[in-house]
């Protein structure tokens, strides 16, 4: 689908000259319903032209990892400070990893906008689609991520300035608040062996291995299938499942299930790991299926069969199809889940996620506004035999 796009072909040399010239392209799309996401079409002096310039500026920063000259486009000093700290983290990380950015392509899709009657002010919500190609130890690979921002623009003479930027940090918004009482309820249900109920085999197993009967143990976890599912559905919801506003753990659970992890259906939302879709408007799945903190408790539990995991000390001990759960504030309230889908040239995990769709993103998430100096990680190695 054609979109307004900023593309940089290569890293700048000293003096600001790039071996590959940066290009900005605007293309017309087929007409859509008024409320549907649509590409930005720039008009000279209009607010969309300022957003185009902003996207081009972001794209150059993705390559250089330095703050290029914003040329007065953005006047939000708080956000600029926040963005520079993020670039500094990433620059240090990539130097440590030996990563050289080769190419970046950033496009923006307009999700929602409003403007004053005089058009002196406008507000826009955009989705940034970022594709980066990097080189490490002679190997080249591509990572993708999506980010959403709300922009406030004000007319200044013959053009518009972006006077405020609010990144929408969806990774920090759990589906349920992990209050002490909620954690206690989940802990009672998950940290001990769950009630003995038949373990449901993934539906796909009946087709691939029809000789298996429900409740049989010794299922092999198919890491390749979990990763393949994650790559297939990282940027769009599988219509066979409910989609949540905060969808990361629902997505990771689907990946585990696609890898033949058997559900543990207890009929209790605070126990087991299961999904039975919405019924007459009632949510019909376990908290561990859809809530990062609850999945963290479930995988930490001790059980002899079914989906289970071992907590390991570091990311380099993980394998394909393993899980990382993130505590941004370091207060033991886990808010985000990812699944390992690839490895960089140094053998470190690259992960997929949803809510903020990401594919083959470096595992530590230092490129996210959700990350803080207090961030803690929980590394789960899924058992090979389930």
From TrEMBL:
It comes from the Bacteria. InterPro entries: Amidase_6. Residues 220-378 form the Putative amidase domain. It holds the Pfam family Amidase_6. Residues 1-45 are annotated as: Disordered. PANTHER family: EXPORTED PROTEIN, EXPORTED PROTEIN-RELATED. This is Putative amidase domain-containing protein.
């Amino acid at each position: 689908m054609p979109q307004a796009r900023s593309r940089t072909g290569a890293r700048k040399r000293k003096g600001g000259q790039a071996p590959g010239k940066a290009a900005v392209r605007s293309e017309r799309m087929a007409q859509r319903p008024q409320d549907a996401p649509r590409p930005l079409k720039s008009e000279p002096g209009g607010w969309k032209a300022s957003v185009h310039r902003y996207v081009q500026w972001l794209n150059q920063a993705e390559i250089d990892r330095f703050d290029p000259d914003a040329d007065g486009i953005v006047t939000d000093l708080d956000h600029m400070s926040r963005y520079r700290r993020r670039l500094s983290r990433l620059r240090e990380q990539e130097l440590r990893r030996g990563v050289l950015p080769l190419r970046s392509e950033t496009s923006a899709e307009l999700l929602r906008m409003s403007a004053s009657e005089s058009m002196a002010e406008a507000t826009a919500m955009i989705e940034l689609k970022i594709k980066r190609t990097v080189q490490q130890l002679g190997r080249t690979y591509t990572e993708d991520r999506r980010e959403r921002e709300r922009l406030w623009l004000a007319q200044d003479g013959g053009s518009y300035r972006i006077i405020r930027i609010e990144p929408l940090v969806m990774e920090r918004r759990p589906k349920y608040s992990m209050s002490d009482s909620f954690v206690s309820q989940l802990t009672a249900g998950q940290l001990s062996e769950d009630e003995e109920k038949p373990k449901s085999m993934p539906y796909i197993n009946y087709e691939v291995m029809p000789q298996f009967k429900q409740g049989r143990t010794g299922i092999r976890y198919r890491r390749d299938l979990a990763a393949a599912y994650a790559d297939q559905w990282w940027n769009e919801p599988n219509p066979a499942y409910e989609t949540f506003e905060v969808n990361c753990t629902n997505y990771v659970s689907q990946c585990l299930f696609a890898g033949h992890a058997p559900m543990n259906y207890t009929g209790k939302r605070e126990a087991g790991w299961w999904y039975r879709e919405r019924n007459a408007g009632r949510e019909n799945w376990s908290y561990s299926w859809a809530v990062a903190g609850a999945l963290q408790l479930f995988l930490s539990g001790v059980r002899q069969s079914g989906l289970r995991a071992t907590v390991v000390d570091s990311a380099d001990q993980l394998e394909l199809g393993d899980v990382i759960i993130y505590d941004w504030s370091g207060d033991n309230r886990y808010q985000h889940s990812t699944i390992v889908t690839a490895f960089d040239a140094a053998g470190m995990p690259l992960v997929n996620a949803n809510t903020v769709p990401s594919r083959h993103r470096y595992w530590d998430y230092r490129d996210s506004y959700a990350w803080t100096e207090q961030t803690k990680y929980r590394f789960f190695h899924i058992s090979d035999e389930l």
